[in-house]
Amino acid sequence: MRTELGEILARAQETGVFSAAAWSVGTADEVLDRGVLGTRWHGGPAATEHSLWDLASVTKPIVGLAVVALAERGLLDLDDPLPRHLPAYAGGDKASITVRQVLTHTSGLPGGTPLYREHTTRDALLEAIRIGPLRSAPGTRVEYSSQGFILLGLIAEVAGGAPLDRLVADLVTQPAGLTATGFGPAGGFLADAVATEDCPWRGRVVCGQVHDENAVVLGGVCGHAGLFAPLRDVERLGQVLAGGAQALLKPASHAAMIACHTEDLALRRGLAWQGLDGPGSPVGTALEPTAYGHTGFTGTSLWVEPARGRYYVLLTNRVHPSRTTPGIETVRREFHASAASR
Protein backbone atom coordinates (compact mmCIF):
# COMPACT_ATOMS: atom_id res chain seq x y z
CA MET A 1 0.00 0.00 0.00
CA ARG A 2 1.44 3.37 -1.03
CA THR A 3 2.08 5.90 1.74
CA GLU A 4 1.12 9.58 1.71
CA LEU A 5 4.66 10.50 0.66
CA GLY A 6 4.47 7.98 -2.16
CA GLU A 7 1.15 9.42 -3.29
CA ILE A 8 2.57 12.96 -3.37
CA LEU A 9 5.47 11.83 -5.54
CA ALA A 10 3.35 9.56 -7.72
CA ARG A 11 1.06 12.46 -8.60
CA ALA A 12 4.06 14.57 -9.53
CA GLN A 13 5.51 11.76 -11.65
CA GLU A 14 2.21 11.28 -13.43
CA THR A 15 2.03 14.98 -14.33
CA GLY A 16 5.59 14.96 -15.70
CA VAL A 17 7.49 16.85 -12.99
CA PHE A 18 10.03 14.01 -13.17
CA SER A 19 10.16 10.48 -14.53
CA ALA A 20 11.40 8.89 -11.29
CA ALA A 21 11.70 9.53 -7.58
CA ALA A 22 13.17 7.83 -4.52
CA TRP A 23 12.75 8.88 -0.92
CA SER A 24 13.58 7.98 2.65
CA VAL A 25 12.61 9.55 5.95
CA GLY A 26 13.79 8.34 9.33
CA THR A 27 16.15 8.58 12.26
CA ALA A 28 19.65 7.33 12.98
CA ASP A 29 18.18 3.97 13.97
CA GLU A 30 14.98 3.59 11.98
CA VAL A 31 13.61 4.14 8.49
CA LEU A 32 10.06 5.47 8.81
CA ASP A 33 9.10 5.69 5.14
CA ARG A 34 10.92 4.96 1.91
CA GLY A 35 10.33 3.94 -1.68
CA VAL A 36 11.21 4.18 -5.36
CA LEU A 37 8.81 4.88 -8.21
CA GLY A 38 8.78 5.73 -11.88
CA THR A 39 11.18 5.05 -14.73
CA ARG A 40 14.82 6.03 -15.31
CA TRP A 41 13.64 8.10 -18.26
CA HIS A 42 10.22 8.64 -19.77
CA GLY A 43 9.25 5.35 -21.37
CA GLY A 44 12.37 3.63 -20.04
CA PRO A 45 13.02 0.85 -17.52
CA ALA A 46 11.82 1.13 -13.94
CA ALA A 47 13.97 2.90 -11.40
CA THR A 48 15.14 0.52 -8.69
CA GLU A 49 16.95 0.44 -5.36
CA HIS A 50 20.20 0.24 -7.32
CA SER A 51 19.55 3.16 -9.66
CA LEU A 52 22.14 5.92 -9.40
CA TRP A 53 21.08 9.54 -9.03
CA ASP A 54 23.10 12.55 -10.11
CA LEU A 55 23.35 14.32 -6.75
CA ALA A 56 24.34 17.64 -8.36
CA SER A 57 25.02 20.19 -5.61
CA VAL A 58 24.40 17.70 -2.82
CA THR A 59 28.03 16.97 -3.75
CA LYS A 60 28.98 20.26 -2.03
CA PRO A 61 28.36 19.28 1.61
CA ILE A 62 29.95 15.87 1.02
CA VAL A 63 33.09 17.61 -0.20
CA GLY A 64 32.65 19.99 2.73
CA LEU A 65 32.72 17.04 5.12
CA ALA A 66 36.03 15.97 3.60
CA VAL A 67 37.47 19.48 3.96
CA VAL A 68 36.46 19.73 7.63
CA ALA A 69 37.95 16.27 8.20
CA LEU A 70 41.22 17.55 6.70
CA ALA A 71 41.06 20.50 9.09
CA GLU A 72 40.64 18.10 12.01
CA ARG A 73 43.82 16.37 10.91
CA GLY A 74 45.74 19.66 10.85
CA LEU A 75 46.21 19.61 7.08
CA LEU A 76 44.49 22.94 6.60
CA ASP A 77 42.89 25.69 8.68
CA LEU A 78 39.44 27.01 7.84
CA ASP A 79 40.81 30.53 8.09
CA ASP A 80 43.59 29.85 5.59
CA PRO A 81 43.51 32.31 2.67
CA LEU A 82 43.34 30.84 -0.82
CA PRO A 83 47.02 31.48 -1.70
CA ARG A 84 48.19 29.24 1.13
CA HIS A 85 47.02 26.27 -0.95
CA LEU A 86 46.59 27.85 -4.39
CA PRO A 87 49.62 30.14 -4.95
CA ALA A 88 48.21 31.46 -8.22
CA TYR A 89 45.70 33.46 -6.15
CA ALA A 90 48.38 35.52 -4.38
CA GLY A 91 48.35 39.26 -4.97
CA GLY A 92 44.96 39.57 -6.64
CA ASP A 93 41.47 40.55 -5.51
CA LYS A 94 40.85 37.00 -4.25
CA ALA A 95 43.98 36.72 -2.09
CA SER A 96 42.12 37.41 1.17
CA ILE A 97 39.30 34.89 0.60
CA THR A 98 39.39 32.17 3.25
CA VAL A 99 38.38 28.53 3.17
CA ARG A 100 35.65 29.38 5.69
CA GLN A 101 34.22 32.06 3.39
CA VAL A 102 34.11 29.58 0.52
CA LEU A 103 32.28 27.06 2.74
CA THR A 104 29.71 29.68 3.79
CA HIS A 105 29.25 31.14 0.28
CA THR A 106 30.53 34.53 1.44
CA SER A 107 33.67 34.55 -0.73
CA GLY A 108 32.33 37.14 -3.17
CA LEU A 109 32.83 34.72 -6.06
CA PRO A 110 29.84 34.77 -8.42
CA GLY A 111 27.34 31.97 -8.75
CA GLY A 112 25.40 30.57 -11.67
CA THR A 113 27.99 31.48 -14.30
CA PRO A 114 27.98 29.26 -17.43
CA LEU A 115 31.75 29.35 -17.87
CA TYR A 116 31.66 26.21 -20.03
CA ARG A 117 30.22 28.15 -22.97
CA GLU A 118 33.40 30.13 -23.59
CA HIS A 119 36.00 28.09 -21.69
CA THR A 120 35.98 24.59 -23.10
CA THR A 121 39.02 23.07 -21.37
CA ARG A 122 39.76 22.46 -17.71
CA ASP A 123 42.70 24.85 -17.67
CA ALA A 124 40.76 27.60 -19.42
CA LEU A 125 37.78 27.30 -17.09
CA LEU A 126 39.95 27.38 -13.97
CA GLU A 127 41.81 30.41 -15.30
CA ALA A 128 38.49 32.15 -15.93
CA ILE A 129 37.64 31.71 -12.25
CA ARG A 130 41.04 33.07 -11.22
CA ILE A 131 40.86 36.24 -13.28
CA GLY A 132 37.11 36.85 -13.16
CA PRO A 133 35.66 39.71 -11.11
CA LEU A 134 34.26 39.31 -7.62
CA ARG A 135 30.60 40.13 -7.14
CA SER A 136 31.11 41.53 -3.64
CA ALA A 137 33.85 42.01 -1.07
CA PRO A 138 34.69 38.75 0.75
CA GLY A 139 32.67 38.25 3.92
CA THR A 140 29.99 40.86 3.16
CA ARG A 141 27.28 38.93 1.33
CA VAL A 142 25.92 35.42 0.89
CA GLU A 143 25.88 34.43 -2.76
CA TYR A 144 25.62 30.77 -3.65
CA SER A 145 28.76 30.04 -5.64
CA SER A 146 29.73 26.86 -7.42
CA GLN A 147 32.95 28.62 -8.42
CA GLY A 148 33.93 28.70 -4.76
CA PHE A 149 33.39 24.98 -4.37
CA ILE A 150 35.36 24.27 -7.52
CA LEU A 151 38.27 25.98 -5.77
CA LEU A 152 37.46 24.11 -2.55
CA GLY A 153 37.99 20.82 -4.37
CA LEU A 154 41.40 22.02 -5.54
CA ILE A 155 42.30 23.14 -2.01
CA ALA A 156 41.33 19.73 -0.63
CA GLU A 157 43.59 17.99 -3.16
CA VAL A 158 46.58 20.16 -2.27
CA ALA A 159 46.05 19.91 1.50
CA GLY A 160 45.21 16.20 1.43
CA GLY A 161 47.88 15.22 -1.08
CA ALA A 162 45.48 13.07 -3.11
CA PRO A 163 42.85 13.40 -5.86
CA LEU A 164 39.46 14.63 -4.70
CA ASP A 165 37.65 11.38 -5.48
CA ARG A 166 40.07 9.45 -3.27
CA LEU A 167 39.77 11.99 -0.44
CA VAL A 168 35.97 11.83 -0.53
CA ALA A 169 36.13 8.04 -0.45
CA ASP A 170 38.68 7.89 2.37
CA LEU A 171 37.19 10.62 4.55
CA VAL A 172 33.44 10.40 3.89
CA THR A 173 31.89 7.62 1.85
CA GLN A 174 33.85 4.67 3.24
CA PRO A 175 33.66 5.71 6.93
CA ALA A 176 29.94 6.40 6.54
CA GLY A 177 29.29 3.07 4.85
CA LEU A 178 28.29 4.48 1.46
CA THR A 179 29.28 1.53 -0.69
CA ALA A 180 28.05 2.67 -4.12
CA THR A 181 28.67 6.43 -4.14
CA GLY A 182 31.29 8.00 -6.38
CA PHE A 183 32.21 10.36 -9.14
CA GLY A 184 31.59 9.15 -12.65
CA PRO A 185 32.26 7.89 -15.16
CA ALA A 186 34.13 4.85 -13.91
CA GLY A 187 33.72 1.75 -16.07
CA GLY A 188 30.26 0.30 -15.62
CA PHE A 189 29.59 2.28 -12.45
CA LEU A 190 26.84 4.37 -14.06
CA ALA A 191 25.12 1.66 -16.09
CA ASP A 192 21.98 2.06 -13.94
CA ALA A 193 21.98 5.88 -13.85
CA VAL A 194 18.76 7.88 -13.95
CA ALA A 195 18.53 10.20 -16.95
CA THR A 196 18.65 13.96 -16.57
CA GLU A 197 18.28 16.61 -19.26
CA ASP A 198 17.86 16.46 -23.02
CA CYS A 199 20.84 18.78 -23.16
CA PRO A 200 21.09 21.30 -26.04
CA TRP A 201 24.84 21.74 -25.40
CA ARG A 202 25.51 18.00 -25.72
CA GLY A 203 22.78 17.27 -28.24
CA ARG A 204 21.44 14.24 -26.34
CA VAL A 205 19.66 13.06 -23.22
CA VAL A 206 22.26 12.90 -20.45
CA CYS A 207 22.42 9.57 -18.64
CA GLY A 208 25.53 8.41 -16.81
CA GLN A 209 27.42 11.70 -17.16
CA VAL A 210 27.28 14.57 -14.69
CA HIS A 211 24.53 17.01 -15.63
CA ASP A 212 26.41 20.18 -14.64
CA GLU A 213 28.16 21.50 -17.73
CA ASN A 214 31.03 23.20 -15.89
CA ALA A 215 31.67 19.88 -14.16
CA VAL A 216 31.83 18.14 -17.56
CA VAL A 217 34.57 20.51 -18.71
CA LEU A 218 36.44 19.90 -15.44
CA GLY A 219 36.38 16.13 -15.99
CA GLY A 220 33.50 15.18 -13.70
CA VAL A 221 35.46 15.13 -10.41
CA CYS A 222 35.11 18.50 -8.72
CA GLY A 223 33.98 20.20 -5.55
CA HIS A 224 30.62 21.55 -6.66
CA ALA A 225 28.97 18.60 -8.45
CA GLY A 226 29.69 15.16 -9.86
CA LEU A 227 28.73 12.56 -7.26
CA PHE A 228 26.26 9.78 -8.08
CA ALA A 229 24.59 7.60 -5.44
CA PRO A 230 21.74 5.14 -4.96
CA LEU A 231 18.94 5.75 -2.47
CA ARG A 232 20.40 3.45 0.19
CA ASP A 233 23.64 5.46 0.32
CA VAL A 234 22.00 8.87 0.67
CA GLU A 235 19.68 7.30 3.24
CA ARG A 236 22.71 5.99 5.12
CA LEU A 237 24.36 9.41 5.08
CA GLY A 238 21.15 10.89 6.45
CA GLN A 239 21.20 8.36 9.29
CA VAL A 240 24.86 9.13 10.09
CA LEU A 241 24.14 12.86 10.21
CA ALA A 242 20.95 12.45 12.22
CA GLY A 243 22.99 10.49 14.77
CA GLY A 244 25.60 13.23 15.13
CA ALA A 245 28.06 12.29 12.35
CA GLN A 246 30.35 10.47 14.79
CA ALA A 247 31.65 8.18 12.04
CA LEU A 248 32.94 11.24 10.18
CA LEU A 249 33.79 14.10 12.51
CA LYS A 250 34.44 15.03 16.11
CA PRO A 251 31.35 16.49 17.85
CA ALA A 252 32.77 20.03 17.85
CA SER A 253 33.52 19.89 14.12
CA HIS A 254 30.05 18.60 13.30
CA ALA A 255 28.48 21.29 15.49
CA ALA A 256 30.50 23.95 13.68
CA MET A 257 29.42 22.64 10.28
CA ILE A 258 25.71 22.78 11.01
CA ALA A 259 25.69 26.07 12.98
CA CYS A 260 24.70 29.27 11.18
CA HIS A 261 27.78 31.35 10.34
CA THR A 262 25.89 34.16 8.58
CA GLU A 263 23.47 35.45 11.22
CA ASP A 264 24.29 39.06 10.28
CA LEU A 265 23.58 38.45 6.58
CA ALA A 266 20.39 37.76 4.65
CA LEU A 267 20.67 33.99 4.28
CA ARG A 268 21.50 31.23 6.76
CA ARG A 269 24.55 29.19 5.86
CA GLY A 270 26.63 26.67 7.76
CA LEU A 271 29.91 25.20 6.57
CA ALA A 272 28.85 23.76 3.19
CA TRP A 273 25.28 23.33 4.46
CA GLN A 274 22.21 25.46 3.79
CA GLY A 275 20.17 26.62 6.75
CA LEU A 276 16.40 27.06 6.81
CA ASP A 277 15.78 30.45 5.21
CA GLY A 278 12.27 31.07 6.48
CA PRO A 279 9.72 31.38 3.66
CA GLY A 280 12.50 31.24 1.06
CA SER A 281 13.59 27.72 1.96
CA PRO A 282 13.34 25.24 -0.93
CA VAL A 283 11.85 22.67 1.48
CA GLY A 284 9.29 25.02 3.00
CA THR A 285 8.86 25.93 6.65
CA ALA A 286 7.70 22.68 8.26
CA LEU A 287 11.15 21.59 9.45
CA GLU A 288 12.52 22.87 12.74
CA PRO A 289 14.38 26.22 12.59
CA THR A 290 17.79 24.59 13.16
CA ALA A 291 17.35 22.19 10.24
CA TYR A 292 20.17 22.03 7.72
CA GLY A 293 20.61 20.38 4.38
CA HIS A 294 21.25 20.88 0.69
CA THR A 295 19.40 20.67 -2.59
CA GLY A 296 20.69 19.69 -6.01
CA PHE A 297 19.72 21.25 -9.36
CA THR A 298 18.77 17.87 -10.80
CA GLY A 299 16.01 17.50 -8.18
CA THR A 300 17.84 15.91 -5.26
CA SER A 301 17.99 16.89 -1.60
CA LEU A 302 19.10 15.80 1.86
CA TRP A 303 17.88 17.60 4.99
CA VAL A 304 18.35 16.90 8.70
CA GLU A 305 16.57 18.09 11.85
CA PRO A 306 19.23 17.77 14.57
CA ALA A 307 16.90 18.34 17.53
CA ARG A 308 14.48 15.65 16.37
CA GLY A 309 17.21 13.37 15.05
CA ARG A 310 15.41 13.12 11.69
CA TYR A 311 16.66 12.99 8.11
CA TYR A 312 14.76 13.57 4.87
CA VAL A 313 16.01 12.28 1.51
CA LEU A 314 14.26 13.14 -1.76
CA LEU A 315 15.82 12.13 -5.09
CA THR A 316 14.22 13.03 -8.42
CA ASN A 317 15.28 13.79 -11.98
CA ARG A 318 13.20 16.96 -12.29
CA VAL A 319 15.43 18.26 -15.14
CA HIS A 320 14.28 15.38 -17.38
CA PRO A 321 13.67 16.10 -20.16
CA SER A 322 14.04 19.84 -19.54
CA ARG A 323 15.27 22.04 -16.69
CA THR A 324 12.29 24.33 -17.38
CA THR A 325 9.74 21.69 -16.36
CA PRO A 326 7.69 23.33 -13.58
CA GLY A 327 6.51 21.88 -10.28
CA ILE A 328 9.50 20.71 -8.25
CA GLU A 329 9.27 23.65 -5.82
CA THR A 330 5.71 22.72 -4.84
CA VAL A 331 6.56 19.02 -4.63
CA ARG A 332 9.52 19.63 -2.33
CA ARG A 333 7.48 21.75 0.06
CA GLU A 334 4.55 19.32 0.09
CA PHE A 335 6.85 16.31 0.61
CA HIS A 336 8.71 17.84 3.55
CA ALA A 337 5.55 19.20 5.17
CA SER A 338 3.97 15.75 5.08
CA ALA A 339 7.16 13.97 6.17
CA ALA A 340 7.77 16.34 9.08
CA SER A 341 4.26 15.80 10.40
CA ARG A 342 4.81 12.08 10.99
UniProtKB/TrEMBL annotation:
It is an enzyme of class 3 (hydrolase). Keywords: Hydrolase. Pfam families: Beta-lactamase. Gene3D superfamilies: DD-peptidase/beta-lactamase superfamily. Residues 14-324 form the Beta-lactamase-related domain. Its EC number is 3.1.1.103. One of its GO terms (molecular function) is hydrolase activity. The keyword Glycosyltransferase does not apply. This is Serine hydrolase domain-containing protein.
